[in-house]
Amino acid sequence: MIKIALIGYGKMGKMLKQMAPEYDMEIVSIIDPFVKGCFEEINENSLKDCDICVEYTTPASVLYNCKKVAMLGKSVVIGTTGLELHLEELKNITESYNVGIIYSSNYSVGMNLFFKIIEDTAKKFSSVKGYDVSGLEIHHRQKLDSPSGTAKKLTEIILENISDKKVEQYDRVDRKIKEEELHFASIRAGHNMGEHTIMFDSEADVITLSHSIRNRKGLASGTLLATKWIEGKTGLFNFQEVFTEIIGE
Predict the structure, then answer these.
(1) pLDDT band at 163, cuts 50/70/90?
(2) Catalytic pick from 143, 152, 228, 233?
(3) pLDDT, tens digit, for every residue of 170-214?
(4) What b/e readout covers 150-176, taking b as 16+ CB neighbours within 10 angstroms?
(5) Residues 67, 68, 139, 153: which is the catalytic one?
(6) Helix, strand or coil for residue 17?
(7) How many helices and strands in the chain, by DSSP H and E?
(8) 55-76: per-residue pLDDT in tens?
(9) Which residues, 6+ apart, have CB-to-CB distance to 193 below 8 Å?
(10) Active-site residue 36, yes or no?
């Protein structure tokens, strides 16, 4: 049984605690200075009984948290998003302290299958003319980042796999076609858990592919699968890049 320390005890932390036994895991420590009854700091005492840490906090805290965890010899699953500019620092942490770190724009199993669907679809459109590609994401009003890490990942996937065709966007200022860009609209309002839609639009028709989150169970499931996978490994890993291996395909 893998023993986990949760760093951050918000809604995702509570879902992870609820689901951990289903994956033969146990939450043995919870670290959150803003929640009564939890450990306030990452230290030898708060991590003494754990095998791996799972971090769901904020972009401002994640590097500090990961370094402290690594200094104590523990690997970490990072649930916090918005790390694009800090990957080199995270890699250095894994090398300096010989630990494993896995990160992701989205741990949802369904979303990662959606990534694969969009990748395959974009490849098919790379040789077809007449289609514009666009995206729309909707999240609840409390979500901080806009666009989301998931929207950025979808954009990256499309641009990588439709490169022969180029994604054409019309620039209203200089009235020229701009290449290698994709318009992804981002809405923050209400209580939507998360919805991402990709549209391939032409004069003749439109093909729409969409993924909607009903609850946090899919995110928690992927996070726990990543936790099991990272055990005993060293280095920096992207969940999307090892997803197929993680789910056993």
Answers:
(1) low
(2) 143
(3) 444 444 444 456 788 999 999 988 899 999 999 999 999 999 999
(4) bbbbbbebbbebbeebebebeeeeeee
(5) 139
(6) helix
(7) 8, 12
(8) 999 888 999 999 999 999 999 9
(9) 139, 140, 212, 213, 214, 215, 216
(10) no
